[in-house]
Specification:
Length: 252
């Protein structure tokens, strides 16, 4: 194995181990050369090999980024098949929440077992951002908290699968925030769940982390179903809206 191939293998291992997440920018050639103790020419050759295999994507003027292992688009447009399903079939919201319950429970368990000091710092930062944001408009910080946990699982398949579905998963978070957070009792329970998940991961309590993470998503699912059964109209927020309080919502 040549030097450039060895370097490309090491970079692939870093991606698989979750050290470089999907969409994350690769350090510069100079930084990599210094860190790995080789010339920039070797780094350039290694990056070219990774690009050829579709592991990384190079954007002119911006640098190189980790590609998604799972084929996806950065933007789910309104004419995409998944968006048609979400728009036309109310049950799709619950299908997505079922996926979240299982995979995020697994991610929380693994994060409690495997999180590094850096992971814990990122999870703490995400949790604090969530706490400090208005609960009536905190869908992105909420999603960011769960995303930090997923990345701390260090399971490359789990990380990349959920990254490939991140926009659809964000829709479920928007639905939770739009429908449940305005209700004080539900909002307080959701905040309590987030705290329990955070504390379990920080304490390294893997089984507890899995249990509370799954219970959290199940609560969201059951609560939305209950609202619909009571005749309430459940709001499903479009990806077009960055903030559903400032832009029109789509109700399906």
């Amino acid at each position: 194995m040549g030097i450039s191939q060895e370097i490309s293998f090491r970079l692939e291992r870093l991606i698989l181990d979750g050290g470089l997440a999907p969409g994350q920018k690769i350090p510069s050639e100079r930084q990599l050369a210094t860190r790995l103790g080789v010339s920039r020419a070797i780094i350039r050759e290694a990056l070219h090999e990774l690009q050829g295999r579709g592991v990384i994507e190079t954007q002119h003027g911006r640098g190189s980024f980790v590609a998604s292992i799972v084929p996806t688009t950065d933007d789910l447009e309104d004419n995409s098949p998944l968006m048609h399903l979400f728009a036309g079939h109310p049950r799709t919201l619950y299908d997505l929440l079922e996926v979240r319950e299982q995979l995020e429970g697994q991610a929380a368990e693994l994060a409690a077992q495997r999180a590094t000091r850096g992971d814990r710092h990122r999870i703490t930062k995400a949790y604090r951002a969530l706490e400090e944001t208005d609960p009536l408009s905190n869908a992105k910080p909420d999603h960011g908290f769960h995303q930090a946990i997923i990345e701390a699982s260090h399971n490359p398949v789990l990380v990349h699968v959920l990254n490939g579905l991140k926009n659809m998963m964000l829709l479920t978070v928007h639905a939770s925030v739009a429908n449940l957070n305005p209700r004080a009792e539900m909002r307080q329970l959701i905040m309590k769940h987030h705290k329990q998940i955070y504390q379990a991961i920080m304490a390294g309590k893997a089984r507890t982390a899995r249990k509370v993470a799954m219970a959290h998503v199940r609560f969201v699912q059951d609560s939305l179903r209950s609202l619909e059964n009571q005749g309430a109209e459940v709001i499903r927020v479009s990806l077009e809206s960055n903030n559903f309080h400032e832009n029109p919502t789509k109700r399906y």
